[in-house]
Amino acid sequence: MTRERPRLGRGNVTAIAAGVLATLALASVPVGAAASTTVSAPAATKGETHAGDFDPPPVTTPSASSPPLMNPSTPPLPVSPAAPTPATPPGQEPLLPPVGKVPLLPPVGPVASGSALGAYLNFGPEGVRRIGELEKWLDGTELRVGHTYLPGDLWSNIEGKPGFLADWATWRRAADDRMFVLNVPMLERNEDHVPDEVVRARLRAGAAGAYDAHFTALAKRLVDLKVPDTVIVLGWEMNGNTYTHRCGPDPGAWKKYWSRIVTAMRAVPGQKFKFDFAPTRGRDAIPWTDCYPGDDSVDIIGMDSYDQPENMPFDKQISEPYGLQQQVDFAKAHGKEISYPEWGLFASGDNPGYMRHMLNWIDEHKPLYSTISDYCPHGVWQCTKNPRSSVVYRSVLSGRKEPGGVKDPSATPSPAPFPSATPPAAPAASPHPVTTGPPKGCVPVELGDWAEYWLGGKLCVRLDWWREK
């Protein structure tokens, strides 16, 4: 997937008199009826509403999102007609009723000691700061992975400018058990849609040593910053056709070039790098096994695994050729650890069934690390378009403690399935989600726990609405 900068919009949640009447009507009807007349969450990525593992809490804040990869449509919040049993679209789980005040899922089990959890939150210093904010939202669950990407526009950026890497290096050095994961492009102009004949020529030049110096410079920079054990996700998603560093135009040259880069970086004194070979799940443009450069130059078999194609059941994502099961089997056969550098929602929109199954898969197979892509349309914290999946993610991972990842039984997620957005104190390119109280001039209305759960919080009435033109 092409990396996007998350730019979250901002807005204050305000209700007016019409909302009061609608909500009072909602609170006055029986529980069974009211559950089917609330305001629904935003529709899925392609404008389709999906049933998941339980009825979603409605969205009570304006949608805030970063630019999506494929610009999915975002229709206004519709009023869902009463329906005793919503239909279940293909590829998703049957609807389950909410349990108690918050529809919590049971934990999937302890996270393996050494299986590190993280998220891609932002490429720059803001991404470092947001790690702590996400940990708070997860009730203290430790995020041991910091994940970012080197820009692939120019060789000077692929070499890793000190100002770009310094904050990440500082975060990594603050605790011995932390892990810094860095995606490194193999060629400049990496997202410029370079034609195959040019890619082929550049791969062959790289295989002959034309670009060794750039990767030697990067290795020295990481060692100088005292992060010599960085996990290098080199030439990711090489089996697709998105990036200039793709494998398809010349698999033989690509494999030689990969090995040459690894040799150059390992030659730098003091390095302890691990190199992660991370294709996309499935066949894509070329089978990823055709791009595998060999055991001597690979430490980890990763996989970027998003919820796509649309409505593909999770068991198909496991069993398809070059899918999740083949990744696990391939890694075992080659004596390698596995990872999931990128994963998240996509073609089927807000799909809590996928979220639960992917978390179960990660727990069962215990990768070295996994990092969800937390921006729209993939994410669950910074992206408010996926409220049902957000509840699943938070319910499963909230309050887990290291080592061993055993969930603290006293840690219970608060009812809010995702953070509310408020304006930052100072202008920022990518403000992060935070939780706030009622806006100024807004009076909370007591409707009872049940109604407030389905509203996602207290109803707030602006008493000075008549002053506005």
UniProtKB/TrEMBL annotation:
Keyword vocabulary terms for this entry: Glycosidase, Hydrolase, Signal
Region (Disordered): 41-101, 399-437
GO MF annotations, alphabetized: hydrolase activity, hydrolyzing O-glycosyl compounds
Signal peptide limits: 1-33
UniProt biased composition (Pro residues): 69-97, 412-426
Cited SUPFAM superfamilies: (Trans)glycosidases (SSF51445)
Matching InterPro entries: GH, GH26_dom
Gene3D superfamilies: Glycosidases
Domain GH26: 220-336
Protein's recorded name: GH26 domain-containing protein
